[in-house]
Amino acid sequence: GAVVSQHPSWVICKSGTSVKIECRSLDFQATTMFWYRQFPKQSLMLMATSNEGSKATYEQGVEKDKFLINHASLTLSTLTVTSAHPEDSSFYICSARPSGRDNEQFFGPGTRLTVL
Amino acid sequence: DAKTTQPPSMDCAEGRAANLPCNHSTISGNEYVYWYRQIHSQGPQYIIHGLKNNETNEMASLIITEDRKSSTLILPHATLRDTAVYYCIVRVVSGNTPLVFGKGTRLSVIA
C-alpha cells in the first residue's frame, strides 16, 4: 500500500512552453501533498505545500505564478511549470500524506524535466 | 533549514552492519526523528521513525540517545542495494508540517 505515482516520469520541452506534472495517491486519500525539486548532486528542496481544495502555500523564493499547483481532489495534485526556461530543468518529486495519518509521508518516483 | 547534521559519506562492507549517525542537538520535545533514503534518480523511501524509544522494523533499527540529541540508524546486514543517500529528519507530527531534507549521508556498500 501507500503508493504515489507521478506522470510523466520524464519530459523534454522547449523554452517558453508550459509543462504539467501529475501526482496521484493510488491507494489512499491525501489531504496534504507536497512538491519538491532536486538539482543534480543536491538535496530535495521543498517548493510548496498544498491542501485539497485550498490554495498552495509556497516556500520563500518559489514563484507561485510560475509554479502553479492544483490539488482539486484527495488523490490528485498537479504542478504546472509555466513558461519554462533551462534553469527550471530539475527533478520534481511529489509527496503525499494520508488523511488522518500525520506521521506518514510517501514520495512519488519523480519527474525529470529538461528544458531546451 | 535542516536541523540535523550527518557525515557526508560512509562506506560499508557488504554483509556488515551499517551504522549511520545523526546529530539533532536542538530537537524539541514534540519532534520525531525520521529516516528516509534515496536511491539514485528515485523518490525518497521511508525507513523508520521514532520519538524517544528505540525502534526496529524489517528494514532497520533506530537507536535514539536518552537525551534525544542524536540517533543512529542501523542496517543490520548491508547489501549492494542499500547504496543510497540516507536522510535524517526531525519533524513535529502535525498535518501540514513537511519533511525538510538536509544533505544526508551517501552510503556506499562495497562488495
Could you describe the 3D structure shown?
The complex is a heterodimer of chains A (116) and B (111). Chain A has 116 residues and is mostly beta strands. Chain A has no helices and eleven strands. In chain B, the strands form two sheets. A five-stranded mixed sheet of chain B has the order 1-9-8-3-4, with no helix packed on it. Chain B has a four-stranded antiparallel sheet with strand order 2-7-6-5, with no helix packed on it. Classes of the chains: A mainly beta (116), B mainly beta (111). At the A-B interface, β4, β5, β9 and β10 of A face β3 and β4 of B.
Q: Which features characterize this protein?
A:
heterodimer; A: 116 residues; mainly beta; 7-stranded mixed sheet; 4-stranded antiparallel sheet; 0% helix; 53% strand; B: 111 residues; 5-stranded mixed sheet; globular
Describe the protein's topology.
The complex is a heterodimer of chains A (116) and B (111).
Chain A lengths: L3 E4 L2 E4 L5 E7 L4 E9 L6 E7 L5 E2 L8 E7 L2 E6 L8 E9 L7 E2 L3 E5 L1
Parallel strand pairs in A: 2-11
Antiparallel strand pairs in A: 1-3, 3-8, 4-5, 4-9, 5-6, 7-8, 9-10, 9-11
Chain B lengths: L8 E5 L4 E6 L7 E8 L6 E6 L4 E2 L4 E4 L5 E6 L8 E9 L12 E6 L1
Parallel strand pairs in B: 1-9
Antiparallel strand pairs in B: 2-7, 3-4, 3-8, 5-6, 6-7, 8-9
Task: Write a brief caption for the model.
Chain A contains no helices and 11 strands. By secondary structure, chain A is an all-beta fold. In chain B, β3 and β4 form a beta hairpin.
